[in-house]
Amino acid sequence: MRLPREPGVLLARLAREPVVFAEEAGVVPPITPVGTKDLSQRGILRFWTPLAATWLMMAAEGPFLAAVIARLADPTIGLAAYGVAVAFAVLVESPVIMLMSAATALIEDDASYRQLRNFANMLNAFATGLLLLVVVPPVHRALFVGLLGLPPDVAAQTYGALWCFLPWPAAIGIRRFLQGVMIRAGRTRLVAYGTVIRLAFMAAAAIVAGPVLRLPGAWVGGIALSSGVVAEAIAARFMAAVSIREVVAIRAADRTEGALGYREIFSFYYPLFLTSVIGLAVTPMVTFFMGRSVAPVESLAVFPVVHSLLFVFRALGLSFQDAAIALLGRGSEGIPELSRFGRRMSLTLTVLLAALAFTPLANVWFITVSGLPRALAEFAYFPLRVVVLLPLLGVWLSFQRGVLMRNRRTRSITWATVSEVCVIAVVFAICGWGFDLIGVTAASIALLCGKVASTAYLVPSTRLALKEGPPEPTG
């Protein structure tokens, strides 16, 4: 199709139909609808790569912001408060975090789209209300000073940072729902483009709030992250326009399956909601433990730096979950190639992380890139080496979850997460309080053991789901 050359016409067209315009211009090539995907290794790679890029770009946020905060005044206090604030902000967003996977797995027609959209809006309001509750002064004091026992200067910065996170839950919920619609339609590249926008706004906000305005470090992190996700949510609404039109054009009456109602959505989603709440409670729980272990301030300062680096490697495994949901197929025909792809990816990630953790590259990352003082960096080396197998376990766990979600058997995912949290608590108590290990070291050992427990728990459930397949249609 011939595109108009006049700048004014181009801009007007881009504002009115951004995705259609991009496809016609060759920026976004047409992609085969879900259900007819190329299940070769190359086809899986093409589908998964934009999702992986999205998670990698999100993973880059943590190290970037940690490096900015480490170069501001009082870096130890700023990093500790930022780590605590992020942990609670992520915990508060837990009700909406699985909306992308839910949209990918459940949306099939106009009725299911509208039902799930209404459900998502209710979750967004609920999550925002939770964050408002946390910043009520008496509640904040009870949680952060009383329960967590944070030092007063850390607690004060955390309070301001949580106010900066106020737009965060709803923006996350909106963009994850819309991203699920785009993944369901096969437009995974648009998801990556939205993340580029998010990173650009995040970086700009961090530079203005940090080096320019010299705000407290934890506040800088909250402002930057919130600015990024709000920009991404707005962009996602424009980029998902074509995908939404496609799905609402499919009438529920034209399909053989029964309509998706709120009861079915709730039955599918509440185990995932519990999984998110329980799983995301891990970081606040570990923060609580580290605050009462050996070297508490150093552990709280180093943990977000180690965790953000680890997330860079785990992100690729996390991105595999939604690819598995979309590519598995109703008859699980994608299993052989997906499992082969996952094995290759997990081994590659483990080797790369080991090369960083056990060589002088660790010095480059923690001191040169992250900006940690050498005294703080000494607390980070051993914890990173302990968790070198976490990327491998993460890929395996994402594959298991993808199989279970695609087959709408989500309850075992919750119990696997419960087992993970219980193991983390027990192992930390033994290592941190029983053997008096440094807090961040005990946390790394506990996190590894917990992930092993969760992955092992899902083995029989995944085999059963593959054997029995998805539930029979209800109508």
Written description of the protein model:
There is one protein chain. The chain has helices at residues 7-16, 18-24, 41-70, 75-92, 99-106, 110-134, 137-147, 152-164, 168-184, 188-212, 217-239, 241-248, 262-280, 282-290, 296-327, 335-357, 361-369, 374-377, 381-386, 390-406, 411-434, 439-468. It is built from 22 helices and no strands.
Keywords:
globular; mainly alpha; 77% helix; 475 residues
Total E-strand runs: 0
Principal-axes shape call: globular
Proportion of strand residues: under 5%
Helix tally? 22
The residue-averaged pLDDT reads 82
Content-based structural category: mainly alpha
Largest sheet: none
Low-confidence stretches: 1-36
Order of helices and strands: HHHHHHHHHHHHHHHHHHHHHH
Span from first to last CA?
A: 42 Å
* Share of helix, binned: over 70%
- Rg value: 22 Å
SSE layout and pairing:
Layout: H1 7-16, H2 18-24, H3 41-70, H4 75-92, H5 99-106, H6 110-134, H7 137-147, H8 152-164, H9 168-184, H10 188-212, H11 217-239, H12 241-248, H13 262-280, H14 282-290, H15 296-327, H16 335-357, H17 361-369, H18 374-377, H19 381-386, H20 390-406, H21 411-434, H22 439-468
Helix pairs in contact: 1-2, 3-10, 3-11, 3-15, 4-8, 4-11, 4-15, 5-6, 5-9, 5-15, 6-9, 7-8, 8-11, 9-11, 10-11, 13-21, 14-21, 15-16, 15-20, 16-20, 20-22, 21-22
